[in-house]
Design a protein that fits this description.
Layout lengths: L1 E2 L2 E2 L8 E3 L4 E2 H19 L3 E6 L9 E3 L12 E4 L7 E5 L3 H9 L2 E7 L11 E6 L6 H19 L4 E4 L5 E6 L6 H18 L4 E2 L11 E2 L10 E3 L15 E2 L35 H4 L1
Parallel strand pairs: 13-14
Antiparallel strand pairs: 1-2, 3-4, 5-6, 5-8, 5-9, 7-8, 9-15, 10-12, 11-12, 11-16
Helix pairs in contact: 1-2
C-alpha cells in the first residue's frame, strides 16, 4: 500500500482481529485511513501510547509507549524524559502514513497525551473521565450535564463531550497552554469536589473502587504529566469495533447506545470537534 507517497508493507491483511465480528486488519487499516482527515488534527503533535493486539482482541494485548527500533525513520517521534527514569522515544502521529503504519502493527487503540510535543508540561486539554458504576449510564449522563452546567454557570465555558467507545464519556475543555499540569489538575480536582459537595449521594472523587459505593467517579486524574486519554475516533478492542465518538450535547441521553458508533457508522456523522482548538479557554485568567 502507498500512502502519501510512502510505500507500506501490509502484513497479514486478512488476519481477523475481531473474531465474532469478522473484522480484519485490512478493515482496521482502511478505517484509520478514511477517518484520518477528522482524526489527525485532534492527535497532531501528541505523544501516542499504543494498545496493540497482534493476535486479535480475544488474545493477550500489550501497551507500548516507546517506538520500536524497527519502526521506519519517517515515523516521527518525541523524546520524553520520565521522572526518575531514562528518556523514551514516543510516536507522534501527524500524518496518514503513520496512522496506517500503526494500524498495521495491530495498534487498535491509540491513546494520546493532553499536551503537545513543543510544550509537554503544559496541557491544552482538561478532561473528566466518567465511567458508569455497574452499567448505570444514566448517572454518567447526569454527571456530564452537571459538569457542563457548572462550567457554563461559573466560567461561561461550554465543554465538549465524547463517548469513549467503551462504557462512558469524556467531558473535555480545550484550554490555552498557560498553566502546567499541577495547576490544571488542581483546578480539575476542585471542580470534582464541587460536584461531590452538591450531590454527595451520586458522585465521588475517591479513586479507590471499594470506597465508591456505586457512586459515579468524577475522574480528574488524567490531567497529569504522561497520563493519556483515548484518542477521538480511536477504535476500541470490543466486538463490532466501536469508536470513541465526539457527539453533540443534544445526543447525550440516558438511553444513548454508545456502541452504535462503530467503524462502519461513524462516517455518517458531522465533525463535532472540528473547531475545538479555536474554543480554547485560559484557565490562568480564571484562577
Amino acid at each position: 500500500m502507498t500512502v502519501e507517497k510512502q510505500k507500506i508493507e501490509i502484513t497479514n491483511p486478512e488476519k481477523v482481529l475481531f473474531p465474532k465480528s469478522k473484522i480484519t486488519k485490512k478493515d482496521l487499516i482502511e478505517y484509520y485511513l478514511n477517518i484520518a482527515d477528522l482524526m489527525l488534527p485532534l492527535i497532531k503533535d501528541r505523544p501516542v501510547t499504543m494498545f496493540r493486539y497482534p493476535n486479535g482482541i480475544a488474545q493477550e494485548h500489550f501497551v507500548q509507549k516507546n517506538a520500536s527500533d524497527y519502526f521506519p525513520k519517517w515515523v516521527k517521534t518525541k523524546s520524553v524524559k520520565r521522572e526518575g527514569k531514562s528518556s523514551i522515544s514516543m510516536v507522534v502521529c501527524n500524518d496518514k502514513k503513520t496512522l496506517v503504519y500503526l494500524a498495521n502493527q495491530a495498534c487498535i487503540t491509540p491513546h494520546i497525551w493532553l499536551s503537545r510535543k513543543d510544550s509537554l508540561h503544559k496541557p491544552d486539554r482538561l478532561i473528566f473521565d466518567l465511567d458508569p458504576p455497574k452499567e448505570n449510564f444514566e448517572v454518567v449522563v447526569q454527571g456530564a450535564f452537571d459538569l457542563k452546567e457548572l462550567f457554563e454557570k461559573e466560567f461561561r465555558i461550554t465543554p465538549f463531550v465524547m463517548t469513549t467507545g467503551s462504557k462512558g464519556v469524556h467531558v473535555i475543555v480545550p484550554i490555552k497552554r498557560d498553566l502546567d499540569y499541577t495547576k490544571v489538575r488542581g483546578f480539575a480536582k476542585q471542580i470534582g469536589e464541587i460536584l461531590v459537595e452538591n450531590n454527595p449521594d451520586d458522585y465521588t472523587i475517591n479513586p479507590r473502587k471499594e470506597k465508591r459505593k456505586n457512586k459515579l467517579f468524577i475522574d480528574y486524574m488524567r490531567n497529569a504529566f504522561a497520563q493519556t486519554a483515548v484518542a477521538p475516533y480511536a477504535v476500541r478492542a470490543l466486538e463490532k469495533a466501536p469508536v470513541a465518538a465526539p457527539i453533540k450535547w443534544t445526543e447525550l441521553k440516558k438511553n444513548l447506545d454508545i456502541s452504535k458508533f462503530t467503524i462502519k457508522t461513524i462516517f455518517k456523522r458531522e465533525a463535532v470537534f472540528k473547531n475545538i482548538d479555536k474554543k480554547a479557554y485560559s484557565l490562568k485568567k480564571l484562577l
